[in-house]
Amino acid sequence: MRDRPSDPVSRGGDGSGGGGSRLAGGPARPGRRAEPLQRLLFGGVYGSVLTSALAAALANDSGPPDPGYDALWVFVAVLASAAAHGYAHAIAHRTADESAVTVSALRSMLTEWPLVIASVPALAALLGAYAGLWGEDHAVEAALALNVATLFGWGLWAARVAGRTWPASCRVGGVDLMLGLFIVAVNVLSK
Q1: 25, 27, 140, 159: which could form a disulfide with 169 (CB 3.0–4.6 Å)?
Q2: How many other C-beta atoms are found inside a 10 Å radius of the C-beta of residue 2?
Q3: Distances (CA, A) of 123 to 67, 76, 105, 115, 129
Q4: Model pTM score
């Protein structure tokens, strides 16, 4: 999404037109109020795609169905991804004059909670299968369907926050939806 004057994220989120800082030769950085919203939107999309791919892959293993084991590994992988992304973000934004990266890295890792929360629908479906409410195949199908719908919503919301029109926002949501459908298609073709 390109920055626009009417974009509350690029203006610092407070509508004042200020609050963003400019890196040397780079685009304006979002203000402090806009950054949590960006992390929420990023984490939602990234977490939904990651969880869909993991659930689809785990459903195609060769052993007997074990949705509890699968839920555990989806959760561990999502936590590891969130931590890795937060750590990489902290290291990438570290300047030469900062002495302690540990605190900023830990803080950055903790701000990746939206990525973890995005895995909740798939985890709930797998844990329902583990409890015997439905089979693992149905849990994976439900998780993929929920994540496809969620991806459309994340894209629509992100575009609206960026000041896009409803038709443009629906197109962005449609592109995000295509990411989910790609995973569904690969899952169907791999069976």
Answers
A1: 159
A2: 7
A3: 9, 11, 27, 13, 10
A4: 0.72
